[in-house]
Amino acid sequence: MTKKERALQIIERLKQEYPVADCTLDYDQAWKLLVSVRLAAQCTDARVNVVVEDLYARYPTVEALANGKPEDIEAIIKPCGLGHSKARDISACMKILWEQYGGKVPDDFDRLLKLPGVGRKSANLIMGDVFGKPAIVTDTHCIRLVNRMGLVDGIKDPKKVEMALWKLIPPEEGSDFCHRLVYHGREVCTARTKPRCHRCVLEDLCKKAGVQESDSSKEALGQ
Predict the structure, then answer these.
(1) Which residues are catalytic, by number?
(2) Helix crossing, 45-58 with 70-77: angle to 10°?
């Protein structure tokens, strides 16, 4: 079985297991997702969803948040951790959105990357969830699971994992595939406990369980 063949089968199995593939961060406007994904660094999505309620109650618009003092923003978002740097980035990002983009989030990957606090993971999330464009979000769940499954081999760098997955995952499937990996990583293929392989719909496809890719897949990917 080649890596691409395995990837396509994994995609279909995860679709059946998790029919709804939504982002677990709550948002109703693009700029709010941009804020939440910055807060989610080293913090759970569940906690972020609670904290932003107070943040948006005080700063309900891009303009309001852009004009807020970083120290006041920090006081609200402190429960998410790394409050100082996150408040600084959020403040600077909202200022740019307000002053340069009329309060709108740009739908261009490279422009997103230029925003303070926005890396490839965040930019891909915005591109996929907000604008419906091809995206691969290499968060910790994605990186851990695709290594275990054998879609990549011992690659931990997020950008390198992303580039490897672009060769395997159909563009229209990337965003939902990554969301489903989050669900699977939390419920079955966990990080803090032993993976629950006996409950896994991918057990017979997973390299961890002994499935090996063919030599042709190695050649195709230059391995």
Answers:
(1) 121, 139
(2) 140
The type of residue at 73 is I
Reduce the DSSP state of residue 131 to 3 states and report it: coil
Shared domain for 126 and 45, answered yes or no, is: yes
User: Given 81, 104, 130, which residue is the final one in a domain?
Assistant: 130
Residues 203 and 170 in one domain: yes
Nearest 5°: the CA angle 215, 221, 223 is 65
- Look up the domain containing 164 and give its range: 3-21+137-220
Q: Tell me, what's the pLDDT at 211?
A: 44
Note the pLDDT tens digit of each residue in 39-74.
Answer: 999 999 999 999 999 999 999 999 999 999 999 999
Task: Measure the CA–CA gap between 198 and 41, rounded to whole angstroms.
Answer: 31
What pTM was computed for the model?
A: 0.89
Please report where in the chains the tokens 């107070």 appear, as a residue.
Answer: 54
For the stretch 111-138, pLDDT in tens is 999 999 999 999 999 999 999 999 999 9
Do 143 and 125 belong to one domain? no
Nearest to 167 by CA among 217, 128, 221: 221
